[in-house]
From TrEMBL:
Protein's recorded name: Type II secretion system F family protein
Annotated organism of origin: Tahibacter harae
InterPro entries noted in UniProt: GspF/PilC (IPR003004), T2SS_GspF/T4SS_PilC_CS (IPR001992), T2SS_GspF_dom (IPR018076), T2SS_GspF_sf (IPR042094)
Family: Belongs to the GSP F family.
Topology of this chain in the membrane: Multi-pass membrane protein
A Pfam family this chain is assigned to: T2SSF
Compartments, as annotated in UniProt: Cell inner membrane
Record has Membrane as a keyword: yes
Annotated keywords: Cell inner membrane, Cell membrane, Membrane, Transmembrane, Transmembrane helix, Transport
Domain Type II secretion system protein GspF, first and last residues per copy: 65-188, 269-391
Lineage: Bacteria, Pseudomonadati, Pseudomonadota, Gammaproteobacteria, Lysobacterales
Transmembrane segments: 166-187, 217-237, 372-392
Domain of life (superkingdom): Bacteria
Length: 400
């Protein structure tokens, strides 16, 4: 499919122009004539010099797409036409091309879940399985509405977690940058003054001066070493499950932040399982999809163990209790849901509760971190300033 720019006149002689996606110019002209438009110019749309491939498709765009297609289907718009309308309104070229390819597959006889399955990066196993269940049950519009709500809630939760992590990371990075500037540009100026004193420097000041000399002489080694450290860390985290598991467990033990990550993992577990179970996916199969949606290697492994226990006949609440990760309240609510036959409703209640807890914790995090951040900045930056003025204080005492 290629996008063509056309201009022409309607039956009243009014000039019109627009864009149309088709395989060739002849098809564009035929479609325009069918609509009563006499084409005067049809040519391929020029590709931009930069950004022709479009930006990366984000999970937020997938969430918006889910909501758009669910609304259109509930309004009675045919699936193919709905995809065509949504694709036409996309500013992201990659998103537009992907939706056009999905529409083409469906026109060729594929089901929606088969067409979505060709894009596993954008539509994960959970998304595809839910759509498959909806198509099989004949309630695709309802399932798409549920999926849209699910994606919106999950993306909102992810945004809150990023907000919780972003603030302390930025402050720490700024503190490091200020310290580096002091070591490279400020301390050498003080060092030249100290040489005129003719006296031994305090040990603390000498340590800072030595650090400044090393940083100034070997700044490229420090920079490359820092980059290499973070690159090695990321490589090991992605390639070594054991290392990723260790890091995840260590982060979960951190005060405040660890609690937020615990609560977000439980919220995502409950909402994902509730959505899949309500869509008619069997519990064992639903747990397969849930494992990767928790966002934590620790909970991922725990959910896989839960799935194995459920597969051999254990109740979900018993399997969750054995995992020793879920609070007693969560286990009890799941037990009530299983006994009353309203497991999906109880899971949604759990998700809503913990999402609210995460929201409150993130709002409170900034005020909780302020004293801690002040201590870090005071220790790193203030310590160097004090170290530089110690010889001056010592000289003043001697002169006095």
């Amino acid at each position: 499919m290629e996008t063509f720019v056309w201009s022409g006149k309607d039956k009243r002689g009014q000039s019109m122009k627009g864009e149309y996606a088709a395989k060739n110019i002849s098809l564009v002209k035929a479609e325009l004539r069918r609509q009563g438009i006499s084409p005067t110019s049809v040519k391929a749309k020029p590709k931009p010099l930069f950004g022709a491939a479009g930006k990366k498709i984000t999970p937020r765009e997938i969430a918006v797409f889910s909501r758009q297609i669910s609304v259109m289907m509930q309004a009675g718009v045919p699936l193919v036409q709905g995809l065509d309308i949504i694709a036409g309104g996309q500013a992201n070229v990659r998103m537009k091309n992907m939706l056009t390819a999905i529409k083409t597959d469906i026109e060729g006889g594929s089901t929606l879940y088969e067409a979505l399955g060709k894009f596993p990066v954008q539509f994960d196993e959970l998304f595809v399985n839910l759509v498959k269940a909806g198509e099989a049950a004949g309630v695709l519009d309802t399932v798409l509405d549920t999926v849209a709500t699910y994606k919106e809630n999950i993306e909102s939760l992810k945004g809150k977690i990023r907000k919780a992590m972003f603030y302390p990371a930025i402050v720490f990075a700024v503190a490091l940058l200020v310290s580096a500037i002091l070591l490279i540009f400020v301390v050498p100026q003080f060092e030249s003054v100290f040489k005129n004193f003719g006296a031994d420097l305090p040990a603390f000041t000498q340590m800072i001066v030595s650090a400044s000399r090393f940083t100034t002489a070997y700044w490229y080694i420090v920079l490359l070493g820092t980059i290499a450290f973070f690159a090695a860390f990321i490589f090991a985290y992605k390639r070594s499950p054991a290392f990723a598991h260790f890091c995840a467990r260590a982060v979960l033990k951190l005060p405040v932040i660890g609690q937020i990550l615990h609560q977000s993992a439980i919220a995502r577990f409950a909402r994902t399982l509730g959505v899949t179970f309500r869509a008619g996916v069997p519990l064992v199969e639903a747990l397969d999809s849930v494992a990767g949606a928790t966002g934590s290697p620790i909970y991922n492994a725990a959910v896989k163990r839960i799935r194995e226990d459920v597969a051999i006949g254990h109740q979900l609440q018993l399997a969750m209790r054995q995992a020793q990760l879920f609070p007693n309240m969560v286990v009890q609510m799941v037990a009530i849901g299983e006994e009353s036959g309203a497991l999906d409703k109880m899971l949604f209640k759990i998700a809503e509760f913990y999402e609210e807890e995460v929201n409150n914790a993130v709002d409170a995090l900034a005020s909780l971190l302020e004293p801690f951040i002040m201590v870090i900045i005071g220790t790193m930056v203030g310590g160097m300033v004090i170290g530089m003025y110690l010889p001056i204080f010592k000289l003043a005492a001697v002169v006095g």
